TrEMBL record, chain A:
One of its GO terms (molecular function) is transmembrane transporter activity. It comes from the Bacteria. It is found in: Cell membrane. PANTHER family: ABC TRANSPORTER ATP-BINDING PROTEIN (PTHR11795:SF442), BRANCHED-CHAIN AMINO ACID TRANSPORT SYSTEM PERMEASE PROTEIN LIVH (PTHR11795). GO terms for cellular component: plasma membrane. The chain crosses the membrane at residues 20-40, 46-76, 97-122, 142-163, 191-213, 219-237, 244-265, 277-296. This is Branched-chain amino acid ABC transporter permease. The lineage of its organism: Bacteria, Pseudomonadati, Pseudomonadota, Alphaproteobacteria, Rhodobacterales. Belongs to the binding-protein-dependent transport system permease family. LivHM subfamily. GO terms for biological process: amino acid transport. It is a multi-pass membrane protein. Keywords: Amino-acid transport, Cell membrane, Membrane, Transmembrane, Transmembrane helix, Transport.
TrEMBL record, chain B:
Residues 26-356 form the Leucine-binding protein domain. This is ABC transporter substrate-binding protein. Gene3D superfamilies: 3.40.50.2300. Keywords: Amino-acid transport, Signal, Transport. SUPFAM superfamilies: Periplasmic binding protein-like I. Coiled coil: none annotated. It comes from the Bacteria. GO terms for biological process: amino acid transport. Belongs to the leucine-binding protein family. Residues 1-22 form the signal peptide. The keyword Transcription regulation does not apply.
Amino acid sequence: MSFILLVEQVLNGVQSGVMLFLMAAGLTLIFGVMGLINLAHGSLYMVGAFAAAAVAAATGSFLLALVAALAAAALAGCLIEMTVIRRLYDRDHLDQVLATFAMILIFSEGTRFFFGSFPLFLDIPAALAGPVTLPGGIQYPLYRLVIIGVGLAIAAGLFLLIARTRIGIQIRAGEADREMIAALGVDIAKLYTLVFALGAALAGLAGALVGAIQSVQVGMGEPVLILAFVVIVIGGIGSIKGALIGALLVGLTDTLGSVLLPLFFANFMEASAATSVGSSLASMSIYILMAGVLLFKPTGLFGEA
Amino acid sequence: MKMKSLVMAASVAALAAGGAWAEEGKVKVGMITTLSGGGAGLGIDVRDGFLLATKMAGNENLEVVVEDDQRKPEIAVQLADKMIQSEKVDVMTGIIWSNLAMAVVPAATAQGKFYLSPNAGPSALAGKGCNPLYFNVAWQNDNLHEAAGAYANDAGHKNSFILAPNYPAGKDALTGYKRTYEGEVAGEVYTDLGQTDYAAEIAQIRASGADSVFFFLPGGMGISFLKQYANSGVELPVVGPAFSFDQGILQAVGEAAVGIKNTSQWNKDLDNAANKTFVEAFQEEYDRLPSLYASQGYDTANLLLSAMEKADVSDAEAFGAALKEADFDSVRGKFSFGNNNHPIQDYYVREVVKEGDVYTNKLIGPSLTDHADAYAADCKM
């Protein structure tokens, strides 16, 4: 296992973590501020990717495609918030799960109705294609570095938003005591719609960015959604910092696990058995991590009791 | 009163006679395939190919029921039960994925139903698990990979890095490649089924010192891998089976796939009359080029129709013999079954090219001729 390979895998883990953070940040805000479990978050990710693919095919501009992804996802978020989600705030978590699960099905079939069942084409712009050589002779895809950059920039932006702006104060207050800020005169309905749309926009952006290097197809959001839930459980509900740390942990564990575990088992097993066992364990590793964190900190690393 | 009861009796008799006459010669086909979710393109192609053939034949004795298994084994099993017990189908077909096939096929044949596989060809059903009611009209899972291994030898690849997902067809893929490939294996990796990020695997390829890459990643997995590989700076030649380079996927991958060689038992430019008819009819009916999955669905339907001309489905022995004769015009040219009801056929190498606006495959040459699968000897038939 050379140093270069290790560095490359660490970068891969960070990139995958940063993408997870975009999903998890929205999810944790929605859960923290509104107490709502939103399974449709994965569908908003998919909506962003499809909007980006459609706009990129029509205009040829990746930047426009990203803007379209943000707008489409935010719009979709506003729409479902005002029609369906609003009625779920006072309900049991199970009712929320049921309703948002139905939204997943509606979004999936709706997307298939408009776009067909075959995967769509979305490619990274030529300016960002190909590898760059990092110090140390490491070749790494430029686009993935850009993703890391964008993700960290958004993390910084979110921190500033939560810590330094009026909206941020309202969000933090809403997480602490929902009824109190309503009593203090904050327009809860608008705040909730805003938070939901913000979370949706982040998910849509993640979908567009990741869709360019993976495939844009119906059902692409659900695997990411599951990982995002693992991240917010590890990081603590409602904490953006927790979402970032949790996402990086999950990304690194997943990537490094899938590389290091087979190598570890190759020490006392023959090659194909080692890769089989190693990769099976690697896919379990993030859940083992989650269980481990919960044993010591039941509310997550940065969550409040 | 007497007239009324006479008319009643007459109509009942007519209905009964009519019903009995209608039963003989009729075949009801239950198609369970993947029409939604990540692998939907494959099922849709198989279904479209199959239905095109039935439409072109216009045989009124054939009835087809189509259901979506959503790539979930438990749903496939439920649908199979429904088709056998409530729809009372005679023949079943359609399953794309080997794990679903292993869940459905043994139970279906145990209940006396014929199963014609238009895609999944797990080794378990080609060897010890073979059955006179089970016919595979596509290939045994290892075959396209064996053809890729043979091509890799021809192309001078000496140190391959190989990867596939961790499920029965993935394991069959790497086993098949290694069976014919004569060089060294620089690395062997099993990825998660449905995994979309291959950065870690590509980094391993880069570090392994390999001179070529062989991969089997069907559907969306292949699209992700190819796009990421093209941007990674790793320039090693890539070989794969047709599953990652089929007509449905190529448009989503684009430039990243051009020039890659892949192996298949069929290509749209195979030079025979049946194939020309098929490609033209498919384009006219569905406004897109057919993929190898569509050709497999088409051949499955034509095989079934040819057997229906010769025997009645209620006579399992005669119908099975009629199927085994494979007396139909396959779009692949020559086609015959081995002792284990799996195909003995030619395999070709194709290259991904861009024709106008469309990415498609061009036939390069043969890879394996009259090739049977490696499990036939284990089958007691």
